[in-house]
């Protein structure tokens, strides 16, 4: 059983970066130990995993459905949204059994999918590889249950613990492979955030030019609205939100929105209202620490390189539980989880 669910989890990851604010979902249809169909939710607004799996079945195998099991990473939906209910399709096709990792916390589903399936006489089992399913859709579960985006803090530091120079001059710390990996991460998250100092000193574009994928929403925290208007962040090339505390009114433009927010929780509440499910916070040090001080973060991704600086801006002190460490080119990447949440 676990092998089929692991395959469903693997398929689900193929939707990363394309299905938000929906969860990533994979589905495997199995008959007597053989996979006869499989699919995943490929793009927001398009067919769900169960539908793709069922319609991938070859015509000569369709008669096997009443004796088959559907392994699905998340509870099948039972409501009409952009797609018809997957639970209804499973019933219509006469599937014998459904096995799931997780219940769907979305109030539109929340157990109703399982209730619908059981009422139709389908055998339903839940909780298989539950932890892996929760990890897969950590962004979705955080967004639904905590009513805020999933927060990833990311930075690169020198071997002696500096994140930047004293005078604010841009300095390359991590290697090219790490840089490319960060662009992949950007394509997988809804939004990317920087603070005033990083925006001014680095003049970043915050796009995915080094990786094929969608550009995230750009977010800049510019408390006093002191940043010059000729920065790349204000070029209106992709959706950008500026959070500030200025009393001056600022007229919104195409792809450029100004929002007043007096705290990190207030900022996150606004992003939740805008359906932003995840944010990659790329610095600087003050902004990273502001999330850490109130415990409002979920992952921390830290590159350490062999680069040395004699002086500079000290990197934040890592927190949380180390869950992975690996080499990325000449750099070392460490990933930490914030558990339990300190909200």
Question: Short description, anyone?
Answer:
The protein is an alpha/beta fold and 343 residues long. The protein is built from ten helices and 16 strands. Helix 3 runs parallel beside helix 4.
Assembly state (oligomeric): single chain
Q: What structural class is derived from the secondary structure elements?
A: alpha/beta
How do the strands line up in the largest sheet?
A: 11-10-9-8-12-6-13-16-15
The CATH C-level name of the largest domain is Alpha Beta
Q: Count the strands?
A: 16
Percent of residues in β-strands? 25-35%
Overall structural domain count: 2
State the helix count: 10
Query: Mind describing the biggest β-sheet?
Result: 9 strands, mixed
- Shape estimate: elongated
**Cα Rg:** 22 Å
Q: What is the CA-CA span between the terminal residues?
A: 37 Å
CATH homologous superfamily designation of the largest domain:
Dihydrofolate Reductase, subunit A
Uncertain spans: none
CATH architecture descriptor name of the largest domain: 3-Layer(aba) Sandwich
Tell me the helix content: 25-40%
* Topology order in helix (H) and strand (E) letters: HEEHEHEHEHHEEHEHEEEHEHEEEE
Overall residue-averaged pLDDT value: 94
CATH topology of the largest domain: Dihydrofolate Reductase, subunit A
Catalytic activity: 5-amino-6-(5-phospho-D-ribitylamino)uracil + NADP(+) = 5-amino-6-(5-phospho-D-ribosylamino)uracil + NADPH + H(+); 2,5-diamino-6-hydroxy-4-(5-phosphoribosylamino)-pyrimidine + H2O + H(+) = 5-amino-6-(5-phospho-D-ribosylamino)uracil + NH4(+)
Family: In the C-terminal section; belongs to the HTP reductase family.
Function: Converts 2,5-diamino-6-(ribosylamino)-4(3h)-pyrimidinone 5'-phosphate into 5-amino-6-(ribosylamino)-2,4(1h,3h)-pyrimidinedione 5'-phosphate.
EC number: 3.5.4.26, 1.1.1.193
